[in-house]
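User: Need the bound-state model for fe (ii) ion:
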Amino acid sequence: MTFQTGGAGTSAPDEVQAMESDPLHPVRPQAAPAGEGVSPGSSAAIAEEHRVLRELLGRITATRDLGALLPQLGELEGLLAFHFAHEEEADGLHAVVADSAPDRLPEVQRLFDEHREIARRVMELRERAEELWRGPLAEVLEGVAELADRLHRHEAAEGDLLAGALYDDLGIGS
Ligand SMILES: [Fe+2]
Ligand SMILES: [Fe+2]
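Assistant: Bound-state model below.
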């Protein structure tokens, strides 16, 4: 049986975006969150990555703010690329299962195939969120800013009018 690896979108460190707070350019993890002295593909490292992933998924599913969701989806995309690559390494899931439960190797291949589907879905959702951020949401925010400007001018004109009427009433200047 062959195990397909490397298609989960791993990024070379020099492709990682510079530190920015722009939701469209989230900071992506440059290294897996494995603990000190833990080999990247080991069971302990994978379990730790699962813990970090659960924490991130908790934050993502609680988010209703697109500006916050965008960098979180970018973070998820980067984290999964590293995590899936580690699981698919020679000493990753395949090695652990081959040693202890070889009859379950087909399940390993199914999970590796699912990595591709999950990575694609995360990318689609991140791209859709970016479209909304640049398109409909940007249009609404721009409209709100224009409306606020117009209302400021409108209220200022009324303020001038009232001040002028008061000035005339008091007969000042006549
Ligand atoms: Fe996993
Ligand atoms: Fe996995």
